[in-house]
Each structure stands twice: as C-alpha cells, then as structure tokens.
Amino acid sequence: MARSRVFSGWHFVVFGSLFQAMLVFGNDRNFNPFYFTLEPVDMVIQKGQPAILNCSAFGNPRPTVEWKKDGLFLNLLGDTRRTILPSGALRINNVTHSRNDRPDEGNYECVATVDNLGTIVSRSAKLQVADLGRIDEGPESTSVYTGDTAIFKCVVTAVPGAVIRWQKNRVNLDLATNVDERYTELESGTLEIKNVKMSDEADYRCRATNIEGMRRSEEASLSIIFSGSMVRRPEFASRPQNAEVLEGGDVVLECAVNANPRPTVTWWKDGQPITPSRNPDYHYSYVGAYNLRIKSATEQDTGTYICSASNVITNTNIDARVELLVQVTPRYEKEPTSLFAEVNSDINFECKVYGVPFPTIEWIKNGDTITPSDYFKIVEGTNLKILGLVKSDEGLYQCKASNDIGNIQTSAQLIIVDRDESLPTMPVLISTTTTSPSPTAMVGTDTSPGSRLVPTAPRDVLPQLVSTRFVDLTWREPGLTNGNIMAYSVYFRRQGSPRERVVNTTTVEERIEELIPSTRYEFRIKAYNQHGAGEMSPVLYVETQPEVQAAGPVMNLRAIALSTTVIKVLWDPPTRRNGQIDHYKLYYAELARINSEQDIEVIGLYYTVTRLNKFTDYSFRVVAYNENGPGVSSEEVVTRTYSDQPSSPPVNITMVPQSTSSIMIYWDPPPLSARNGAIIGYKLRSKQEGSRRSSVITVDGAVNSYSLDGLSKDTRYEIRMSAMTVNGTGPSTEWMGESTLPNDLDESQVPPAPTSLKVYPMTDNIHVEWTQPRTDLNIMVRGYTIGYGLGIPDVKMRNFDANQRHFTIPNLLPASQYVISLRAYNRQGSGNVIYETVTTREESTPEPQTPMYPPVGVKAIVLSATAVKVVWADSTLNKQRITDNRYYTIMYKTNYPAGSKPKMVNSTSFEYTIDDLKSSTVYEFAVKVTKGRRSSHWSLAVSNKTSEAPPGAPPKTLTAVPVEGDPTALNLNWQPPKSPNGLITGYIIYYTTDNQKVDHDWVIEPLIGDRLTTIIRDLTVDTSYYFKIQARNSQGVGPSSEVLHYRTPKDDGSVVSHQDSDKLNGRGPTSSASSNDEEGLPRSILYIIIACVVGVTFVAIVTVTIIVCRRRADENMAKKRKQGAYKAPPKGGAKKAGAKDVKPPDLWIHHDQMELKQMEKTPMMEPMTQIPRHQDDMKPLDDPPMSDTITKRNSFTGDDELDLTAQDKTLEKKRKPIMIPVDSQQPREKFRVKTQFNYPMTRSQSLERAGFMASSAGYHSDNTTISSDDGTKTLPPSLSTTRPSGHPLKSFSVPGPPPPQYPGAPPPKHNNKQSPVSMSNTPYKKPPLISPGILKSRMQPVAVNMPRAPDVAIRGTDPSDLSADGKSFSTEDLNAEMANLEGLMKDLNAITSTELEC
Question: Basic and acidic residues bias: where (predicted)?
C-alpha cells in the first residue's frame, strides 16, 4: 500500500490508523505490554523465620523470572533453602543470620524476561533481620530546682525501632492513665518532667522492646533543689536537634528551658512566629512543657525553627536553632514513553522525577545498567540521549530513581526502523539533534535516489572550521535541484564505526558537535525537495584537531561549609591526566562581588579556605596542572558559609510621637555585611525613662516600623533594638528616647487633601507618589486611600498607613486612560480628594521570531598596551545602520592565568574599545547580537596581542652574595618583575656608597639580556654599598627595586651586612677602615703608590716603543727614496729586466684610514719626484688643457657647496664598470699625501677629485702657469701635472686632496664625513680626468634629480668656465686617464706597505 507524509512548515503530522501500521510492520513491530504487577517491598524478618519476596510480571508470552541479590544473580540450582514460586516470588525457608555470616540480608531485585522483547528489573527491596542492640545513651543523674523541667534521655539502636517506656523506682509509669500531665514520654524516648516537685525525687530507668526482645538501662537519680525567690537567667535543659520526618508523619522538636521567674518561650519558623496549640489535633501543638509537635508533616514544613526564650527580670534571651527536613519518596513527574525511531537518528528518553532528597537516576537497557559514553549520554541530569541509532539499540529501557527513602522504576520500549520505511501512523515523540524538520517526512510517491524528480548530490562539501570537538561544514546546492530544496541531511560517523548519526538542517552550513579529538570522521550529505531524498554526496574525511595534552577537569568537586568563615573544598583527580599532575589551583570568588576571584596553589586533593565572610555565597573551581601547564577548569560549585548572629544592630532608628499615648518607631536593617544571615525578627525593648523594669516586644523581620501604644501623656520613653537571625540575637543599640505629645492632634475633623500627587505610567502599571497634607493645621492623619478606574475613579480602592508615600498599581491595560484619586483619612472619615488622569503606554509589537545571525568580520585592532578596539559588521542590517533596539555583546578572555573567566561588555555601535587589558597578552574576542529576548550565537573568535609597555613592577628579591676569595666583588641575584609587560631585554643596576645621592650620581651598570645574576667588581673592602635595580624592555624602564644595603667584607673575609633602617637611610654611624688602626702606613696610601709606579713605567715603555718605530720608518723611507729616483722610460720601452712584480693590495676597504694616518704624520705637502711607469703600462699623452680641470675643482672652506651645472649633471649617467687587471710594480719611495675634505661630495665632485689625483700622479715641484678667460694664473706645485700613459684602472682608492686655489692660501679643515652612495656613484670610484668640454661633445645631458648647492662663486675660478662647451674625447683618452689612475694606485700600495712596517 502507498505510504505518504504531509509536511507543513517545520512541523510534521502523520495520519493513518493502527490497522495500517500493523499491515506494514506486523504484530511483532508494535509495542507489547510488559510490566510488573507486583514488586518486592522492604521487610524485617526474625532469624530462623521464613520470608517471601513477592514478584509478578505481565507479558506475552509469559515472562521468566530470576532474582538478584546485591546486583548478582542468585544461583538456585540445587538450593533447597531458597526457591522461586510459580508466581515469581522468592521464598526463603528459614532466614540465616549470625555475627559472622549474614547470607540473607541485602537488597533483592526481581528480573523478568520475555524472549525477542527484552528484560526489565523491579525496584529494590531491602531484607533485614530483626535486632535489638545495646542502649547507646541512657539516663544520667541530675539536679534541678523546684519548678524547673527535668530531662532523661534514652537512645537505642534497633531493627525495627524499639518502643521505650520508663520506670520510676522500678515501677512502670503508666502515662496513658496517669492524671499527672507533668510527665511526658516523647517519641525519641526522652522522659520530660515539667514543674518538678520534691515528690519527683526518685530513681528512673528506661526499657526498650521490639520483636527481638527487651533491654533496660541503668538507673539515674533525680535530685530536687528548693528554688525560692532566687532569680536565674534562662538556660536550655534540652536543646532541639535537627530532625527528619517522612512526608505525612509526625515529628516533635524538643526544647526545654529553665529560669526564674519562668521564661517566655516562642517558636519561629523561617523568621515567622508560630502559635502552637495545646490541642494535639492541631498542625502545631505543644507536647510537655515547650516541645513543638508537627502533625502530618508536609514539604511546606521543611525549614528552620527557632526556640527563643526570654526573661523580663534579667533582660536576657536565648535562642536555639533546628533544621527540619520532610523527606519525600521518589515519584515520576514525567515517565519515558515507548518510541519508534529511524536508523542513524538521535532519540531522547525523558524521565522527570522528584523526591527529597533528590533521587539519583539509573538507566537500564534489557536488565543491564547503561554506562554513559560517546553515544549514550545523560542530559539534563535525568534524560537519556542515544546518538546515531543502530539496530542493536532496540529493546526495553528503564528509568530507575532512588533516594534514602525508597526507589521506583518505569520502562519504555524502543523499536528501530530503516530510513526508507514509514513510521507507524500513531503519534510518537521522536527527538532529533536539531529543530529542523525530519527529512523522512518529505517522502513522496517516488523516493528513489535515481528518480529524475529528486535533486542531485550537494556540491563542494568542505570543512570550514575543524576544531577538537566540532566541525563546521559548508556546501553548495545540488547542480540539479528539480524543485525547491527543503532540507539537507548530514550523515557522519567515526571511521570504521557501524554507528552513523544524522543531523538535519535547512541551510548550506552546519556545525557537527560532540566529536572526539584526534579522530577521523566520515561525512555525507543528501538534499531533499518536494519529491524526496536526493543523491548522496561523496564521502568527506575529516580528522578533528588533537587536544592539547593538558589535564582534564577534576572530578567530584564539592565544597563543604565548616563554620561561618571556613569552607573545605575537596575533589578527585581528573580521569584524563595526560601525565603526572604537578599541582592544582583552587579559584574562589564571592558571587556578589565582581572581579573578586582569588587563587591558591594546592598540592593535595583538598584545601580549607578560611577568613571568609559570614553567610556569603562563594563559587569554587579547580584547575589541574601537569608538565604541559594548566588543564581544563572544573565546573563551578557554590557554597554558602554558615550564618551567625548579627554583628551590628539596626540603623537609622527614629521615634516619632503620634499622640499623647503612642510613639511610632522606624528603623532600617543592619548593614548587609553585618547581618550574617537572614534577619528573621527584631527585639524591641522599651521602658519609661528612669525605670529599671522594661518590656520586650518581638517584631517580624519583614517589618521596619512599630507603634508603641498605651503610653502616658507627655512622658519620655526609651527604647533599644537588636536584630535576630536563626543563630541568635545580635548586639543592641544604645538607649534612645522620645516623649509623647502633651496634647493629641485634632481628630475632630477630616484631614485636608495631600499637597501633591504624581503618576508615572507604564505599559501595564502606574506608579503613584504623593506628599502628606499640611502639617501646620495639627490634624491627625491615620492613612491614605487611593482609588483608580478605567475612565472613572474609585472603581478599585486601596488603603495605606500614614507613613507610606508611594504605590504601584498593577495589572492595568495598555494604551488605556485611568483616573487616579487620592485622599487622607482619620477616624472622622476621608478628607478632600485630588485627581490625576493618565494613559498607560502602548504595548510594543512582539518581534518576529526570526533567527539572529552572529556578527561577521570581527577584527581586534591593538591601540596600546592596555587597549584593543574591536570592530565588526552586522550582515542583517542595510547600510550598517542600527534602527532598532539591538545591542552587541563583546566577550573577551585570555588563557593566562589558566581558567580565567571571560569578561563581557555591551555596545550599541559596531565598535568598542576595551581599555582594561594587560600588556603583552594574547586575548580572544567574540561578538554576538541581542535584540529583545533573542540572541545570536557567538561569532568566530579572533585574537590579538596587546602591545608591550614598560615593566610595571621592579625586579623581585634583590640579594647580594659575596664572591669567595675576592672581598672587592659580590654576586647580585634577583628575580624578574611580577609585571614585565613584555620581553625583558636587560636590567640596570645602580650602586653607591651614599644613598642620599640622586639617581644620576649613582654608579650605573647596564646588563643586556634576561639573566638574573651578575658580579660587581672593584669595590672597596669594609665599605657600605647600596644597590637597586630596574628592569627594561623595548618600551622603557620600569620602577626601581627597594634599596639593598651591603657591606663588603673585611680583610679576613668576614661579611658584615647591616639591614637596619637607620643605616639604610644614612643615619647610622660612619664606618672607618680598620686598617687605620694598624702600625705603619695606611693600606689605601700603599695602593696609590703602587698604582703611580705602574703607570709611570707603562708610559715610559710606550714612549720608547714609539720612538724606535718612527726611526725605523724614517730609515726605510730614505732607502726607498734613493732606490725609486729614476726617469720615465721612453714610449714603447720594454719592461726593466729583473723587476719584481708585486701585486698591490685591494685598497677598497680601510685605505682612507691609512691615508689619514700618513697625512697626520706629514703636516706639510712635500714635493715629490715623478714616479715612472713601466713601458707596457704607460702611453705618452699631450698635456690637456688645465683650465677645464681647474674649473671643476672646489677647495673652499665652509659649508658652501658647488652649484652644479648641466654639464656636471651629465656625469651622473651610470657607466658599465670596466674590469681590467693591474700589473704589479716594484716598491716605490714613500709617497706623502695630505687629504683635506671640507664639504660633502656629489658624484661630479668625486669625479673632480679623481681627476685631480690622476693629474697629480706626475706633478713637478715648480709652479705651472695656465691660461683662462680672466687671465693667466700660476698654480702651486701640487697642481703642476704631466699626463703619463698607463693601463686602464683595476683597483680603487679615495679621492686625492683638493689643493688650495692660490699659493700660500691656508689649507682647508679636514672633514671626512661622507654620505653613503651606491657603487655606481661612490666617491671612492676613480673615473679618469676628463674635461667638461670633451664630455659635452660625446654625451647629451641627462635629467637627474639632485640636491642643488647654494649659488656661491668658486674662489679663483670663473663661473662662466663651468658652462663652457668642451670637445669630444676618444677611447684612447679614456684609456690614458685610466692608466694614470693605475699608477696612482700603485703609489698608494707603496705608501701603505711602508706605514704597516712599524
């Protein structure tokens, strides 16, 4: 037959009949009734007697019954003493019991099984053997005053409970027929004799009996003392004890108080006074003297009871607290129901129970207890959730609830069908992991995946985010949808596991949770349209991230209050330790205070927290630490410290006379920190001024005013007050007084109208405030009446006392007009009325329940060391404009310290600056949006690290340790600062012998790195030093540590360290060297003499060495000059035979220092002979025109620079470097050059310098005359040049010195500061000397952006010469200039070799 589903919205309605379901599945697929009709109950049996534990079960076929004892099946094969009856009951012929062998006592369970259906287990029944133990507490002899109450106790342990009766002088007290009501036998076995007389003096003993036998106690004597008129303060003869009673039972709270005169005893429950009756049929009644009986106790009777006694004469009172717990047997509020479910789906068996104490839940499947696992989970404390159903999960499931009173069980059946089958057409509850529709509900007439009507497989299934315990999947719609896609099913399972789960969704993304770390999973997705399920996507394999090898949460964390200020916290080690647990950290905080969490490092498995506040809630959590650091924090547990008596009296007490016979008293409770518990009442003691007799009135704790009535006219009265908790009464205030009125207020007329009336409307209520009538009329006001109605006044009316000034009218209609009236009244009636008309606000339209999407694009921008700006966007808003009442919550946290709680702030914009962060700390940020009562999920978390800041604290524990064997040194040790605020890059040590100096006068010892120790040397022996230290990081220096005082050892090596504050502050006596007392010269003078001798000797040695080296250098120079005097060989001459080839060194590096050193030795430029070149290296060249060369040089002194012309800029064009080898040469005479730099060189200037050096390689000693536009000029000898031939340049050198512009001109100041330039334009490169006229004919100007020097005329040159056109130059000219530089380099080689000889 056809099977169909109807899909409407997100809900599914299945229609059909039970007959259709039977046709589809058959009878074996229905729920078969199977349950217990009779279960065993607890019983007590005498030893040797038979016992029968009943059990009967209904099922088809008939169930087979077995029995368990203490969780183990009974093996009854061959057992003649124990048998199972045909009804299923267990019979024990004779119960065996001895001191060492108790085989029959224990908990029994009946187990019933139906083949092919399952197994169920009955409730547990406890079998006990009757016993009567010894008397644990018997009566004790006592003495009491006449009129007091005598108490005798008798406690015995018995099964079943014993009945206790009393004997007086070994004669039974028949209290049932005894007319003397002074004797009372309480249910606990206590005998109470109230208002004792002399005739009560006797010996008393108790007798306990049950089915096992009878026992008697020892006798106790009662002695009576005549009381007379002696006044005695109240004291307890019997304090009430905490009690428990089964719901519906009776209980007696004992309380006996003795005092003279007889005290007044009052009972309180949860701060409210109760009035017991002497009639035993009442719910609260007195038994004996002051014992409170509660009949047929209910849950409402659970609470705190106080027996309070006071004495008027002694002005004292005493209180005793007792807790009553009414126990309730477990009961089901919602039982699990039988379910049909599909393979791979998730189901949830609900089981809601109640009981006092709250029952524990145990889930059982086919008779076996279910252990929670990855697929069987206990949720919400009681429900069973099964993930990824498989066929083997079918069976009977039982929810068993038990507490100290009893246990119950109920069962439900689970039937699993394939996903291509229809579920039965009967309403059943099937739970899935999401609220999305079950895709199987969208099955049409053709559900074949190969049908052309169903969609193809979803595309591009990808893991968007893979975490340790969840995976975010995304995908695209199928390529062929064949209609509208209505839902998707995501199938997933652990690789290799037969148990597959399914999650349904209507979007193209889904988060799969409850996964296991480091586990490989398989994911498949199929789409559904109106025709049914489509094709399955290919399998996607995803492996979850490994979990950090940190310890898991501790187990069984509990906190137990031990007193008003002490709580003991205990826990068990984590089940997942991932190594050895090193220690634990206990975090605790006061719930009412923000940011009050503190932590304590604990080694063991418990810790006692002390010095807590009284009656305060504290939260506790524990983090385990292993070698990898902090683990997962445990869940928080909350415990409250015990309450105590108030530590402060009521405050703001005022007394207002109301009339000639009454005074109104107002007060406020004690401060919250001093209440130490819930205030259950106030004790008001009043008296007439001057009188010693006072009266005590107890006022309820919820009331803050009281009227003292019945007073005398124009008389002063005094009062004092104290507050009460369940623990007792706190301190009292000082006496304070007020007088009654000499004349009563006028009450012969009605009061006038109140002076004002204000109303504040809301949607469903109106708040009303008013002021009292005029007081100058002296008219009595006893109260106020408020009337209100819809459109008309006084439809409803409320009365208030004269002290109330505000009221909120509830339960009104929105957008409605109300008329409010107010009047004052007294005994004459109501006065004039004032009215106010007001309209309540309109009710806001409920927002549509559309889903809220989390913000996107969250970014954390670091602003400073303590501030981060979080920005985000809201994808649901147009143009990012907020037009409704939504707001955003920013959550941020850090993992240091471990287990830190996240903090949250709210914002109504798309950014928020958090400025309370720690420096150099990584924080995580997430944002969610809230609108009304709806909130989105948290956005994806982003993290960032705050900037560093200077250290916020000084280094810790600065200590000084002497260095063994060296009295002038010490070892300083310290610890890093508590707040480094970044990576510590070094420390700064300050030390001095006078701690009164300012910091910059101290000796400073900087240290680089993060080392924590250093040695300070060269200290003076037997001297006081003061040390302090600062830490530094990349952002600055932190504060200084405390000053450490240290005294260096004496000569014998002993250490004298003074830490007293006088010497630390410089107020101690001045120390003197002990060596001054010795014979001979002081040791310090000897040190000075030795130092002077050593210094003079060293200076002498250095002087002699310098003189010897200089003489040797001069001799070598003279020899080389003689050997190097020769003329230039003729052109084309051959190389001199026997000449030794010496390869010059590379002078690219350090040659400038060598030249400068040589120039310092030769203050004046000496004439040099022409250095000849080898024939192969030189080409004769005609003298070039010197005018162009001179116009290119600048040797002026000062900051002025050369004004570059277009011709100079053309030289900036980069040329391809020429790499030509340089031949070796013979040693030459010493060549002395004095280099003078007086301005920063540009590239053109460096070319000029190079040209000068090339031309000066063969200069003459006599002056040279050149021609120019402005006349003939004579050059100094240094500028007289010849142009030798040579090989092209290989090596490089510094530019030569610029000569003076005229003879006798002062040499310019030396300046070696040069700007770094690239290789192509470095001043160290020596291009050949080429006149500007030649360059202009060969090269076109190139535009180059160069800094322009000031327009300053060069001394000794004509500016017009700089722009004169030159002629073109040839390759031969360039080669000649290069050869010229080659010779210069060889000369420099000879110079450096000579300089390095010494």
Answer: 1044-1065
* CA separation for the pair 1006, 1025 (Å, rounded): 17
CA atoms of 320 and 235, how far apart (whole Å): 10
pTM of the complete model: 0.46
pLDDT of res. 858: 92
Burial class of residue 1269 in the structure, from the number of CB atoms within 10 Å of its CB (0-12 exposed, 13-18 middle, 19+ buried): exposed
Q: pLDDT for 498-518, tens place per residue?
A: 888 888 899 999 999 888 888
Residues 6 or more apart whose Cβ sits within 8 Å of residue 940:
465, 854, 858, 926
- In angstroms, rounded to a whole number, what is the distance separating the alpha carbons of residues 1168 and 180? 150
Q: How many CB atoms lie within 10 A of CB 98?
A: 9
Instruction: Show Cβ contacts of residue 564 under 8 Å, excluding neighbours closer than 6 positions.
Output: 614, 615, 641, 642, 643, 644, 676
Give residue for tokens 């070319």: 1247
Q: Is the dihedral of CA 912, 917, 921, 924 positive or negative?
A: negative
How confident is the model over 644-666, as a mean pLDDT? 88
For 1282-1301, b where at least 16 C-beta lie within 10 A, e where not — what string? bbbbbbbbbbbbbbbbbbbb
Torsion of CA 993, 999, 1004, 1009, to 10 degrees: 130
Indicate the residue type of 129.
V
Beta-carbon contacts of 1302 under 8 Å, excluding residues fewer than 6 positions away, are 1276, 1356
Which residues of 335-406 form beta strands (DSSP E)?
A: 339-342, 347-349, 352-356, 360-365, 368-369, 376-379, 383-386, 395-402
At residue 1220, the 3 state secondary structure works out as coil
Task: For 892, list phi and psi in degrees, rounded to 5.
Answer: -140, 145
Amino acid at 415: I
Rounded-to-integer distance, Cα 1129 and Cα 1137, Å: 13
Q: How far apart are CA 176 and CA 156, in angstroms?
A: 23
> For residues 110 and 90, what is the distance between their CA atoms, to the nearest angstrom?
9
DSSP code at position 228: T
Q: Token pair for residue 308?
A: 């309070």
Residue with tokens 């069976």: 395
Query: Encoding tokens for residue 525?
Result: 């997705």
pLDDT tens-place string over residues 1242-1293: 444 443 444 433 333 443 444 444 344 444 444 444 333 344 444 444 334 4
pLDDT of the residue at 847 = 56
**Which residues, 6+ apart, have CB-to-CB distance to 983 below 8 Å?**
920, 948, 1010, 1033, 1034
Please answer whether residues 127 and 109 qualify as being in contact, where contact means their C-beta atoms are separated by less than 8 angstroms: no
Helix (H) / strand (E) containing 1155:
helix 1151-1161
Integer angstrom CA distances of residue 662 from 595, 686, 741: 49, 12, 8
Instruction: Identify any residues that bridge with 434 across adjacent strands, giving them in sequence order.
Output: none
3-state secondary structure of 295: coil
Burial class of residue 194 in the structure, from the number of CB atoms within 10 Å of its CB (0-12 exposed, 13-18 middle, 19+ buried)? buried
DSSP states along 1024-1055: EEEEEEEEEETTEE----PPEEEE---TT---
Residue 491: partners with Cβ closer than 8 Å, 6 or more residues away: 344, 500, 501, 502, 523, 524, 525, 526, 536
User: Two tokens at 363?
Assistant: 């889930």
DSSP 1181-1197: -PPPPHHHHHHT-----
- Give CA–CA dist 422/411, Å, rounded: 25
CB-CB contact of 892 with 914 (8 Å): yes
Neighbours of 24 (CB within 10 A): 17
Q: How far apart are CA 1176 and CA 1286, in angstroms?
A: 8
